[in-house]
Automatic annotation (TrEMBL):
Its EC number is 1.13.11.5. Residues 295-446 form the Homogentisate 1,2-dioxygenase C-terminal domain. Signal peptide: none annotated. Its cofactor is Fe cation. InterPro entries: HgmA_C (IPR046451), HgmA_N (IPR046452), Homogentis_dOase (IPR005708), RmlC-like_jellyroll (IPR014710), RmlC_Cupin_sf (IPR011051). This is Homogentisate 1,2-dioxygenase.
Length: 453
């Protein structure tokens, strides 16, 4: 494998298949990649001496003894061991990036909430200073639950790096293009794509085309995995080959640098004299990836009724209870609606899970007005919700021809835990105070006459 020089200044391996430059296809594969020839030891992990004077180091994403189908680790061969990439720590404040438990007794999380898109500040914001937590659930200290954030990023991190010991980060861009320069390679993302950054992975975030806005699900628990398809079979929904993991890339650069670590909900800063993105070669199955949501193959009703939204699950992060996710990541994309004699939008319901939605672009069928691109909504645990008056009347009286829902892409972070609003979400973010009024005009239609519809 030869080396090339990536735009960000990292030495990058070429794609082994030459299909998508810089990425390897597959979800959770046992990958191997090297940015210099023969940098990767073959047949063993810890040779007495590694080529090029590299240090061998394992990054364990699961307990050593996790079952084989869940066990994830990656062997890195790097210029310096990670212990040289941190020094003494100093606590810093990033007050708008909150972690669970974060329950403010003065804030009412019980309610149906919706927000307009959060506007960018005039001050430049990085990945760290531009993160705004909307909700938290569970407990970061016991590694259960999640947080939802909106990022508002206008400035690249320069000689600054970050990792979260608390969480896996699922990034859902809504505006602008970003580059994640990680220890294990480079990922570029744009709207309609997502990126997944594993717990403990060091990276720097650069703005390719700003301003950048999007959503983050910070997963405190077990990693995201592909949902079981059950009777659907071996294909459709999210297919493993459409996930792309970057090839190795490294930089050998000495410069005063800062590494920020999120650990048990607190932020810590440490100063070093070089870039920590120095992994020349690696192999393993614990790695970042990206996924193009446009490759998600939706499956749905082809005769009547509206299936549960779990049919649109892209990724699921299990909890300890079988079939009850710590987090489901669910996608509502363009698709055909063909069900006969059916109320086609989502039905009215109450749910033991709590549902946080975001609009990437277009119009969501259950809320034709008010849920706008960049906006979010929260329907918390056991709070009733469903179509607004406009959606109900339209869908109840529509001439049910085959119809394609177009110009639409929304998503849901659904968790088994109640979500608590942050002070920012309740007081500073553009909350739509009148959201609940979208159901106000729904009138009683009951008529006890036999045969009446
Ligand atoms: Fe719902």
């Amino acid at each position: 494998m030869t080396t090339s020089f990536a735009p960000s200044g990292l030495h990058q391996a070429t794609s082994p298949l030459g299909t998508t430059a810089g990425y390897m296809p597959g979800f959770g594969n046992d990958f191997e990649t090297e940015a210099l020839p023969d940098a990767l030891p073959q047949g063993m992990n810890s040779p007495q001496k590694v080529n090029y004077g590299l240090y061998g180091e394992q990054l364990s994403g699961t307990a050593f003894t996790a079952p084989s189908h869940q066990n994830e680790r990656t062997w890195c061969y790097r210029i310096r061991p990670s212990v040289k990439h941190t020094h003494r720590f100093q606590k810093i404040d990033l007050p708008l990036w909150a972690s669970a438990p974060n329950v403010d007794p003065d804030i009412i999380s019980l309610g149906q909430y919706r927000w307009d898109p959060i506007e960018h500040s005039k001050e430049p914001r990085t990945w760290l200073t531009g993160m705004r937590t909307m909700t938290t659930a569970g407990d970061v200290n016991t590694q259960v639950g999640m947080a939802s954030h909106v990022y508002l990023v206008t400035q690249s991190m320069v000689d600054a790096y970050f990792y979260s010991a608390d969480s896996e980060m699922l990034v859902v861009p809504q505006e602008g293009r970003m580059r994640f320069c990680t220890e294990l390679g480079i990922i570029d993302v744009e709207p309609q794509e997502i990126a997944i950054l594993p717990r403990g992975l060091v990276y720097r975030v650069e703005v390719l085309d700003g301003p950048c806005r999007g959503f983050v699900c910070e997963n405190y628990g077990q990693k995201f995995e592909l949902p079981g398809r059950g009777p659907i079979g071996a294909n459709c929904m999210a297919n493993p080959r459409d996930f792309k993991t970057p090839v190795a890339a490294f930089e050998d650069r000495d410069a005063p640098s800062t590494v920020t670590v999120k650990w048990c909900g607190q932020f810590h800063e440490t100063k070093i004299g070089h870039s920590p993105l120095d992994v020349v070669a690696w192999h393993g199955n614990y790695a970042p990836c990206k996924y193009d949501l446009r490759t998600y193959c939706p499956v749905g009703a082809i005769l009547f009724d509206h299936p549960d939204p779990s049919i649109f699950t892209v990724l699921t992060a299990p909890s300890g209870v079988e079939g009850t996710a710590n987090i489901d990541f669910v996608l509502f994309r363009d698709r055909w609606m063909v069900a006969e004699d059916t109320f086609r939008p989502p039905w009215y319901h109450k749910n033991v899970m709590s549902e946080l939605m975001g609009n990437i672009f277009g119009i969501y069928d259950a809320k034709p007005k008010g849920f706008i691109p960049g906006g979010m909504s929260l329907h918390n645990m056991m709070l009733p919700h469903g179509p607004d008056k406009i959606a109900f009347e339209g869908a109840s009286n529509a001439d049910l021809q085959a119809e394609k829902l177009e110009n639409t892409m929304s998503f849901m972070f659904e968790t088994r835990f109640p979500q608590h609003l942050t002070s920012f979400a309740a007081k500073d973010a553009p909350l739509q105070d009148d959201y609940i009024d979208c159901w106000a005009d729904i009138e009683k239609k009951f008529d006890g006459t036999p045969g009446k519809k």
